[in-house]
Amino acid sequence: MKSVFVSTGIAVMAAITPLEARAASFRQLYVFGDSLVDAGNIFRASSALSPLGIPQSPPYAQRLSNGPVWVEYLADSFELEPALFADLLLNPLATDVSEGIHFGVGGASTGTDNTVVPNFPLDTGALAQVTAFSSFVNFSGVPPAEDALFVYLAGGNDFAGSEAIPAETDITVPLQNTSTALQTLVGSGAKNILVSGLPDLSLTPRFSGTPEAPTLSSRVIDYNTALSALVEDFVSATPEVNFIDFDLNGELLNAIANPDKFDFANVTDACLTDYSFPVDLDGFTVCDAPDQFLFWDDFHPTTQGHKFVAQAALSQLHERDSDPKAVSIPEPGMVGGMLVLMAAVGGTRLLRR
Description:
Elements: H1 2-16, E1 28-33, H2 41-49, H3 70-77, E2 83-84, H4 85-90, E3 100-102, H5 126-140, E4 148-153, H6 156-160, H7 172-187, E5 192-196, H8 213-237, E6 242-246, H9 248-257, E7 266-270, E8 272-273, E9 285-286, E10 293-295, H10 303-319, H11 334-352
Parallel strand pairs: 1-3, 1-4, 2-3, 4-5, 5-6, 7-10
Antiparallel strand pairs: 8-9
Helix pairs in contact: 1-5, 1-11, 3-10, 5-7, 7-8
């Protein structure tokens, strides 16, 4: 069922890709990764399978935060409205993908698994997300715009683990998954790829002060170092692609060291407490001033935390000496029209199951 489900989305994407998109700093935005870039996919998809979506909202905001995540702020700055991949799967004919797609899913590993919902009806890991996008490009013959921005951020769930999926004890597998994902994006026509390192998970309320914190911190640092080297290798091997190595951990450390600079009063504790995931409806407490907290729950930033990450990413993007030309996206043609009918029928059958 997984492969059919993904194929349905691919077919629809190929069929409804528009002729042109509005020009902006970037004309399209494609996002791949985990909860730090999930703009609502896991909530929308899980809501279709059960009365209560994950994460329970409120107190969450249909994301693993109390508001938009940083890639949504990026999209706003470019005046873009990327579609949610979950919406594309659930309601393909009404979903506009002209300005890109948010593929990120909370709980995604760098591979194909999901640590939050391990039995999800389709693969939602970052590599699976990238593979779905690549399949769309290969199947449709419709490349992304040359001035599209691709964002990749995954790996935190590999090292944090869960009850269902144990934590990785070595960086080799996550690094290889990431390398494969980036190579796939390059092969699918991506020209601007922002690759984000991981935040030091040992500084989150979940792990801070715990016995495993030093080891976890060491793994994240090793991974980030290897990731930067990997990006440098891609820069050398593919000079036609504009790679941006984003130091997310550096931004986190800056906020923790200088909270006043970012108007944070608390950079150590969670605003949301006394809950059990997905959330006990009768047992959670929300702090009085969420915007003064760096962390929303014990693992994820507040939307205020995401704002300063977006500002840092924007600053780095604006430092790049690039002026990509706007290009029109070719018409899908008659084959695309046929695919829309096939995908609509296939999608309806899958949802009825």
